[in-house]
Amino acid sequence: MGRQAPCGRFVVAGRSNGLSDKKCRKLARSVTETYRSTMRDFAQQPILAVWYARLDIAEAVDEYLESLAKPNRKRAKAAFTSSAPDLTRASTRNSLQAIRKLTAVTPMGRRIVSNPPLVIPLDEMTSLDPDQHRQEVTALLTGYRETLQSDRRHLLDHFTITDIAHKIVGVCSVGLRAWIILLEAGAESEGLLLQAKQAVTSVLAEHTGDTTDREQGARVVAGQRIMQASSDIFLGWLSTDAGTGGRHDYDLRQLRDWKVSAEIDQMTPQSLAVYGRMCGWTLARAHARSGDRIAVAAYLGSTTAFDRAVADFAVAYADQNDRDFGALSTAIADGEVTVTHDI
After folding, report:
1. Which residues on neighbouring strands pair with residue 164, listed in sequence order?
2. 114 vs 166: CA distance, rounded Å
């Protein structure tokens, strides 16, 4: 769903696929209606039933495939079929695929492959002191271990750090520290990639009166553990000030490279609607687990007023997205912004 205006993103996707404004608004309302009705269903269920609720992936995939246009259906079905073994093994594969993609065996042993500006090994970062930051990351791992369950601490103890690199992990994290840490357990095939992302104060803090000086990594991890159906076994956090002149909070997890995502540009209005309902259901479950599901359901109500309001916002969000893209395109054409392709 993403963290910002999920329904707005569906309107953006609809416009990109050539849908009319009327169909885009209808799509946003469909996503919101699914969220609202699912929240109402959760409000009527025992909390344990909500906690154990799972989306039936097989049923959802079948509905999605049937909604595709025939030329795309066969290709999408083949893609899902080929990825099915990966999905069933996902809980045990962990970061092995990421290791194959992001590392290579060198005369000095396995190392993270340099791929600037996305991935830069610590020893290549001439703008900082590698020893100082290696100290910071090593201290980070030492404290992070204590945030894990005892069995996972035992598992982590089999590994030692062999390489560290800085990684660009997403638009929302630009400007923040993000490290990938390669650990090995002796054998070449026994590797583990951890990702440490700097965690900062939530943008909602000033609105909720949260003025405590708590660890932001712990806040992020607590939220993920509550909202996610199954969290990473190495999900943890740490605060460190090792040689940096100030405290930095981090959340850590395995860096995984396996992903299955919908190809938005191939979606018909029907398949976008199916995908939207899946996202609406998933968001409702996250909110039902993390908040007061009964109060939220009561606020949303049984009419379509909330659906219409969110659809209005989604269209406004997409309008702003169009204006921002237009401004960026103009800046690129005028030479004010330099663009790098294929990174």
Report:
1. 181
2. 10
Q: What would the 3-class secondary structure string for 164-226 be?
A: EEEECCCHHHCCCCEEEEEEECCCCCCEEEEEEEEECCCCCHHHHCCCCCCCHHHHHHHHHHH
> Would you state the structure tokens that stand for residue 198, as one six-digit string?
């700097």
Phi, psi of 40 (to 5 degrees): -65, -40
Overall pTM > 0.85: no
Strand order in the sheet with 236-240: 119-121, 160-167, 178-184, 191-199, 248-254, 236-240
The total of other beta-carbon atoms located within 10 Å of residue 105's CB is: 9
**Where do the DSSP E strands lie in 42-149?**
103-106, 109-112, 119-121
Q: Give 127's pLDDT tier (boundaries 50, 70, 90).
A: confident
CA distances from 263 to 23, 260, 268, 296 (A): 19, 10, 11, 32
pLDDT in tens, 215-245: 888 888 888 888 876 678 899 998 876 555 5
Stated as kind and residue range, the H or E segment containing 77 is helix 70-93
Q: How many helices (H) and strands (E) does the chain have?
A: 13, 8
CA–CA separation, 184 and 158 (whole Å): 8
Q: 10 Å Cβ neighbour count for 191?
A: 20
DSSP state for residue 265 in the 8-state scheme: G
* Percent of the chain whose pLDDT exceeds 70: 78
Residue 34's Cβ-side half-sphere holds a number of Cα atoms within 13 Å equal to 19
> Which amino acid would we find at residue 41?
D
* CB of 191 closer than 8 Å to CB of 185: yes
Question: At which residue do the structure tokens 């795309």 appear?
Answer: 72
- The CB density around residue 121, as the number of other CB atoms within 10 Å, is 19
Tokens at 310, concatenated: 């969110």
Handedness of CA 85, 91, 92, 95 (dihedral sign): positive
Q: Please list, residue by residue across 237-276, b when 16 or more beta carbons sit within 10 angstroms of its beta carbon and e when fewer do.
A: bbbbebeeeeebbbbbbbbbeeeeebebeebebebbbbbb
Whether the predicted pLDDT of 210 surpasses 80: no
